[in-house]
Fold this sequence. Notes:
Blueprint: E1 2-7, H1 12-21, E2 29-35, H2 41-48, E3 53-55, H3 64-76, E4 82-85, H4 94-99, E5 104-108, H5 120-127, E6 131-138, E7 148-155, H6 162-187, E8 189-192, E9 195-198
Amino acid sequence: ARLVVLVSGSGTNLQALxxxxxxxxxxxxxxxxxxxxxxxxxxARAERAGLPTFVHRVRDHATREEWxxxxxxxxxxxxxxxxxxxxxxxxxxxxxxxxxxxxxLNTHPALLPSFPGMHGARDALEHGVKVTGATLFVVDPGVDxxxxxxxxxxxxxxxxxxxxxxxxxxxxxxxxxVEHVGRMAREGFVVxxxxxxxxx
Length: 200
Ligand code: GRF
């Protein structure tokens, strides 16, 4: 399976995928990396891996729709089977979601449907939950509402701050992402209403 990965930050999830894809038995390859901003470690990781990259900044486009169309076209140019948002901090628009319906995956640093949005780790900490985690899901038009592929649970420790909790979540998130993207690539998957089943 061909993967295009979208990033906005440090790209540790991207790196985990790149490392996994180095083994042909993994069944997937990252063919390009896209971003919504310059100068991020995620893009540097892609460049070090010798991968093509593209950057579309919202502010360089007249409208959000034009930005969305540009991201869609750049992804399509690499003919991905799956597009993976690995810390891509922008909501895809209608054109993108139509082009990649059922094939656009995102990871979120909380156990959805709890704590959707930009601050999953902070919101879980502030709520006082004792376990949180990460969720891999198929993106739909809502915010962090799509059908769930996998979840990983992590404990919240008494002395956690947002940074320590998010780091623990991200360690679990990377393992979950690598395991399930690989299985989806090798075995296929079906989205049946709200349920996602891996395997044919
Ligand atoms: C991940 O926790 C992702 O879920 C969140 O931002 C983080 C991205 O980390 N939205 P990285 O760029 O993959 O290191």
